[in-house]
Amino acid sequence: MLIKKLPNQLIDQIAAGEVVERPASVVKELVENALDAGATVIDIDVQTGGKKRIKITDNGQGISQDDLAMALQRHATSKIHSLDDLESLLSMGFRGEALPSIASVSRFDLISRHQDAEMAYQVSAHGGDIEGPVPAAHPVGTTVIVADLFFNTPARRRFLKTDKTEYLRIDDLIKRVSLSRFDVTFRLSHNGKMIRNAQGGDTDVLRHQRINQLCGKDFIENAIFIEQQRGNLKMSGWVAKPSWNRAQPDRQFFYINNRMIKDKLVGHAIRQAYQDVLFHGRFPAFVLYLDIDPELVDVNVHPTKHEVRFRDSKLVHDFIFGSIHQSLAQTRVGAMSATPT
Ligand code: ADP
Ligand code: MG
User: Fold this and answer.
1) Distance from Cα 71 to the centre of ligand 2, integer Å
2) Which of 26, 38, 62, 201 is a Cys-bridge partner for 206, taking CB atoms 3.0 to 4.6 Å apart?
3) How is the chain split into domains, by residue range?
4) Per-residue pLDDT averaged across 305-319, rounded?
5) In this structure, which residue's CA is closest to atom 18 in ligand 1?
6) Cα(78) to centroid of ligand 2, in Å?
7) Region 138-154 average pLDDT
8) pTM as predicted
């Protein structure tokens, strides 16, 4: 027999190749899990750009003792049970791949106390079999510790950049995620130093503060607030006036049903809306939220879920283009007086 089934750990490591490219992808998966668990406070603590250690603590609903070992099994998820669930999906996760993948390429600890449980439990996987659950100390919620990422996959490890570069990717990711949920507190520490502390709360003051911290202190002042609805498509957010443009596409944040998206069709619609009012080679700035019936959008295109497919892409394109175009038209006078930033 030449054909053999691969051992489970190797299958997980291969899957990890798709989801876990670098420390920032670990942070993304773990933060999304915390959000799916209903956390209102998420602490992200990384050492040496996340290569040495990533520790994420949330105050979500937690995981029960019975579910703890299951959480590290491939294709095991509490978020969908059928194709119907997938079609009406609102959670960030659904593939049941992140934890087993991350655990297969790191020294991994998962400690959690479920909201209905008397105590906390821990499971660990240090490059091999799963150990636990054993009793542990933890308030309601979950902590995941990922140490020595890629210690057993040297080829992957060699692709990592400097600590600084890896850290900046994490910081960028946290910026993006923190704009997706204003009601959640995000705290980020690097090498023991608190770098970001975005206080959660659904007030205009907190919202504007968070946006300005990430986009520049005069972004809101120079942006137009948009709120548009057509049928079951709804878009709200801020688009910078054409005069507040950028040399890089580094202030572009787009969310679909609270999920960060980098989508060609969306990008095209926005570029087109700015086409006549921006100098060539300059980029617009925006923070936009599209709400759409989950049945009209497919997020199961790629494991990282950055891309989407729309059932009616022309409708979505025209809606995004039209909403922005119309808002910009109102400020058209003097629009070409560009102030470089
Ligand atoms: P997915 O998010 O696609 O379901 P994961 O591998 O990321 O898959 O997580 C597996 C399961 O572990 C989740 O479905 C969830 O039930 C549980 N889980 C993971 N992280 C947390 C967390 N921070 N809080 C509560 N439950 C969690
Ligand atoms: Mg997940």
Assistant:
1) 10
2) 201
3) 8-198, 218-329
4) 92
5) 33
6) 10
7) 97
8) 0.93
ipTM score:
0.99
Distance from C-alpha of 238 to C-alpha of 216, rounded to nearest angstrom: 13
Using the CB atoms, write b or e for 5-32: b if 16+ within 10 Å.
eeeebeebbebbeebbbbbbbbbbbbbb
What is the pLDDT at residue 334? 47
> E strands along 10-65, which residues?
41-47, 53-58
Structure tokens at 296: 């009209």
For domain 8-198, which CATH number applies: 3.30.70.3280, 3.30.565.10, 3.90.220.20, 3.40.50.300?
3.30.565.10
CA of 62, closest atom in ligand 1? 25
Pocket of ligand 1 (CB under 6 A): 29, 33-34, 37, 58, 60-63, 71, 77-79, 93-99, 142
For the chain, the average pLDDT equals 92
- The rounded Å distance from CA 106 to ligand 1 centre is 17
Structure tokens at 166: 């890896």
Q: How many angstroms from the chain centroid is the CA of residue 243?
A: 29
pLDDT of residue 332: 61
142 CA to centre of ligand 2 in angstroms = 13
Residue 285: the pLDDT is 96
